[in-house]
Design goal:
alpha/beta, Alpha-D-Glucose-1,6-Bisphosphate, Chain A, domain 3, TATA-Binding Protein, 3 domains, nine-stranded mixed β-sheet, about 35% helix, about 25% strand, disordered N terminus, binds 6-O-phosphono-alpha-D-glucopyranose, binds zinc ion, A-D-PHexomutase_a/b/a-III, glucose metabolism, A-D-PHexomutase_a/b/a-II, isomerase, phosphoglucomutase activity
Length: about 600
């Protein structure tokens, strides 16, 4: 390794006369750890696992080794995350490893905080003082998983387009983790004060190195202002009959919510719930859904007791602020409806889409509500496997403007991640637009009105998801193989349906979903079983790719109703016959021993 000879004067002076501390590069011996295989959402493990000596360092060095050395040398890398426990230690370690690997500059959000969408935007758009741009970034998050000393930590690498590393790169990182014997680390760089907005400069064997700590919201706010009409949203928020509630679940979204909703848009401070980021998310699960966003759900009148005053609009985010949940007064907007409604209203309500949409996309298990909009508006539409990376390819090729998933992810081609705050601003824009001519003393057009009007035009996709968590992995596999076989025999399928629930329409086709990427031609197979019914209903079965214990079977149930007089029924009642059919077709109880799902969303 490059060690400076003893007695070397470690102080160097830059041309402008700033004293620079110099550092040495140490080659540290290490041994591989098992199981450092990152998915597209990165490497997620318990904090205790990450705290083992060399564990994080091995992974970071393996990532640098997987990148072309000539691009790493002299590059700028972003390092920040959702602020969960262990982030602060991780940032200091990554800074030293980056410096030792010849990175010229590390960009850190103040307090080590940057939302996942903000990092994506910064990689794509931020320009440094010397005109430089970021080459990639390490995002420190385990998304919606709980945080704290006994909970989860995570690290994920995003590449130059602002999106998560693709499989070829994550596979290479994993290969490197299996054979790593040493990593490079800088000695002589003190802990950086990541609370202070400042640049710290150093001098290393391969040249200058600096760490710039900057305001976490600045770049993101600038981007949002280019997309949305902030004045129109401010006018909506100023209406006495419009009340608003945002729950950041103690994740990083709180930082952006304070800046955007309070400072920029003039919302009341009382509109914000849990907007101070905490290392353990206040002990909760930072997942914006009806189960985990308890306080918001209650505030919006969807729990009990029902409060006397209920805000008109409610929303929540997950830990790293890429997911979102949208609520109206006593009203839940399904993520599948949300993306369809945003797409249907985007051109009028959101300046960024003024010139039209390039196309729209949804993941396969997401309801077909978006398809009906695409058809109605004559837009190109794509159905991709679960996982945001598939949208990224379409967006890079200019084929898709808006996309979404049933798993509470919504976004657009302004970045290459889903974007929780963006989704809220999109909804506020739609509300502002729909109320632009509504006088202050006239009845406000509400979230429920917008959704109901949408169903009136496009019909409604009744939708629910049943999750069977922590099922024996073998049992889950057997259930899926049974369905693979069954799906090819429609006569048998339709016989079972007739015997179970004769009122349910027949199945017109079944398949195991396979996707051929129209951009790079790559094929993704075994992406879940689909049954498509004659009346437009769908049943989808797939295994979760994110579960941590055993296997999680997800069952997605969807029924299309185009008759406007029938779009206001109760979803679970409407879907009950289809649910029965799904359980019989899959032999759910027989295979898993479960008579009920663990979670219904
Ligand atoms: C992550 C990904 C999403 C995906 C979700 C569901 O959040 O970023 O793109 O929809 O996981 O994953 P699962 O495989 O558990 O259904
Ligand atoms: Zn997330």
């Amino acid at each position: 390794a490059d060690r400076a000879p003893p007695g070397t004067d470690h102080r160097h002076y830059s041309q402008v006369g700033v004293k620079m501390v110099s550092f040495e590069v140490i080659e540290q011996q290490t041994k591989p750890f098992d199981g450092q295989k990152p998915g597209t959402s990165g490497l997620r493990k318990k904090v205790k696992v990450f705290q083992q000596e060399h564990y994080l360092a091995n992974f970071v060095q393996s990532s640098f080794n997987a990148l072309p050395a000539d691009r790493v040398k002299g590059s700028t890398i972003v390092v920040s995350g959702d602020g969960r426990y262990y982030s602060k230690d991780a940032i200091q370690i990554i800074i030293r490893i980056a410096a030792a690997n010849g990175v010229a500059q590390v960009w850190v959000g103040q307090d080590g905080l940057l939302s996942t969408p903000a990092v994506s935007g910064i990689i794509r758009d931020r320009v440094g003082s010397k005109g430089e741009k970021a080459y990639g970034g390490f995002i420190l998050t385990a998304s919606h998983n709980a945080g704290g000393p006994d909970e989860d930590f995570g690290i994920k690498y995003n590449t130059e387009n602002g999106g998560p590393a693709l499989e070829a790169l994550t596979d290479q990182i994993y290969e490197n983790t299996k054979t790593i014997t040493t990593y490079l680390i800088a000695e002589g760089i003190p802990d950086i004060d990541i609370h202070k907005i400042a640049t710290s400069s150093f001098s290393g064997p391969s040249g200058p190195f600096s760490v710039e700590v900057f305001d976490a919201t600045e770049d993101y706010v600038k981007m949002m202002k280019q997309i949305f009409d902030f004045e129109a949203i401010s006018r909506l928020l100023a209406r006495p009959d419009f009340t608003f509630c945002y729950d950041a679940l103690h994740g990083v979204a709180g930082v952006y919510a304070k800046r955007i909703f309070l400072q920029e848009l003039g919302a009341q401070e009382s509109s914000l719930l849990n907007c101070t980021p905490k290392e353990d998310f206040g002990g909760g699960h930072p997942d914006p859904n009806l189960t985990y966003a308890k306080q918001l759900v209650k505030t919006m009148g969807l729990g009990s007791p029902v409060p006397e005053e209920i805000p008109e609009f409610g929303a929540a985010a997950d830990g790293d602020a890429d997911r979102n949940m949208i609520l109206g007064k006593k009203f839940f907007v399904t993520p599948s409806d949300s993306v369809a409604i945003i797409a249907a209203n985007a051109v009028g309500a959101i300046p960024y889409f003024r010139n039209g949409l390039k196309g729209v996309a949804r993941s396969m298990p997401t309801s077909a509500a978006l398809d009906v909009v695409a058809k109605g508006l004559g837009l190109r539409q794509f159905e991709v496997p679960t996982g945001w990376k598939f949208f990224g390819n379409l967006m890079d090729a200019g084929m898709c403007s808006i996309c979404g998933e049933e798993s509470f992810g919504t976004g657009s081609d302004h970045i290459r991640e889903k974007d929780g705050i963006w989704a809220v601003l999109a909804w506020l824009s739609i509300l502002a637009y729909r109320n632009r001519d509504v006088a202050a003393d006239d009845k406000l057009v509400t979230v429920e009105d917008i959704v109901t009007l949408h169903w009136g035009i496009y019909g409604r996709h009744y939708y629910t998801r049943y999750d069977y968590e922590n099922v024996d992995a073998g049992a889950a596999k057997n259930l899926m193989s049974h369905l693979v076989k069954l799906q090819s025999n429609l006569t048998a399928v339709n016989k079972i349906i007739k015997e179970t629930r004769p009122e349910v329409s027949g199945v017109k086709s079944g398949d195991e979903f396979e996707y051929k990427d129209p951009v790079d031609g790559s094929v993704s197979s075994h992406q879940g079983i689909r049954f498509l019914f004659k009346d437009g209903s769908r049943l989808v079965f797939r295994l979760s790719g994110t579960g941590s214990v055993g296997a999680t079977i997800r069952l997605y149930i969807e029924q299309y109703q185009s008759d406007k007089s029938k779009t206001g029924a109760d979803a679970s009642e409407t879907l009950a016959p289809l649910v029965d059919v799904a359980l019989v077709l899959s032999k759910m109880e027989e295979f898993t021993g479960r008579s009920a799902p663990t979670v219904i969303t």
